[in-house]
Amino acid sequence: MTFSLKGRTVLVAGASSGIGAGFSRAIAKAGGRVVLGARRLERTQALASEIESEGGEALGVSLDVTDEASVIAAFDAAEARFGPVHGVVANAGIGTGGHATDVAAEGVSGVLDTNLLGSYLVSRECAKRLIASGSRERGDGRVVLIGSITAQQNGTGDAMYAATKAGLAHLGRQLAREWIRQGINVNTLQPGWIPTEINADWFASERGQQDIQRLHRRRLLDSDSLDAMLLYLLSDASKQVTGSTFTIDDGQSL
Questions:
Q1: Range 68-80 burial, b when 16+ CB lie within 10 A, else e
Q2: Domains observed in the chain
Q3: What's the confidence (pLDDT) of residue 137?
Q4: Residue numbers in the chain where pLDDT is lower than 50
């Protein structure tokens, strides 16, 4: 059994940087056609060109996960180029650091809309099209929600972010149950701390280094540490896995 995605098309939401960009490269290397969606179109198009220069098949599209019309347009573009989309990686997410008593309402709404509503909209659009194209008979539908270990931790500094990630895990179970007879598997992947361009400055700071030293293994995850599990969940190897939550954090949450 391999994690080959040959013949599959996967849309990655939040693909312009960080783990989303890494996921897109991994999908292409596994033989999948990858559609890179994000608000920063110039970035997704640049990454798509990079992937194609290395022999992969990729398309960069504009995608605002909080806007249903934008989500529909992204899937339309994907289908126009590659045909039916077999899976989606709901990776778009933002946070607003600060104590709950200090964060403005607009910031809270932004986190809720992007992390939870956005994941719902892209998952739903993917499922609608899968069902219409016959996924019930094929059994090839795959939805992977990207959560966080903050969903199972108590901390100070970003309560709404953690709450939305906890909500994602339950959303995954709800959607898995709803679509279980439609040939669509829905699972949630919860990563620990990974260095990205968003948090690189913090982890390079003195306090950030102190945070790393408090982790049991005193290290962050490697940038590609989630790839194998992601490919498993998108591939035929996981045909009997749905409604599950997988934590990959190098023991950070222990």
A1: eebbebbbebbbe
A2: 9-191+226-248 (3.40.50.720)
A3: 94
A4: none
Instruction: Point out which residues pair with 21 in neighbouring strands.
Output: none
Residues designated as active site: 161
* Cβ-contact 35, 28 below 8 angstroms: no
Count of beta carbons in the 10 Å neighbourhood of residue 201: 9
User: Please, is 132 exposed, middle or buried when counting C-beta atoms within 10 Å of its C-beta (0-12, 13-18, 19+)?
Assistant: exposed
Give which of 8, 6, 1, 3 is closest to 139, Cα–Cα.
8
- pLDDT tens figures, 103-131: 788 888 888 999 999 999 999 999 999 99
Token pair belonging to 25: 């490269």
Q: For residue 84, which of 7, 149, 147 has the smallest C-alpha distance?
A: 7
Q: How far apart are CA 58 and CA 45, in angstroms?
A: 9
- 14: closest CA among 171, 121, 104, 106? 121
Structure tokens at 54: 């290395």
Distance CA 115, CA 137 (A): 31
CA distance 148 to 131: 29
pLDDT of res. 154 = 80
- At residue 155, the 3 state secondary structure works out as coil
d(CA 29, CA 86): 17
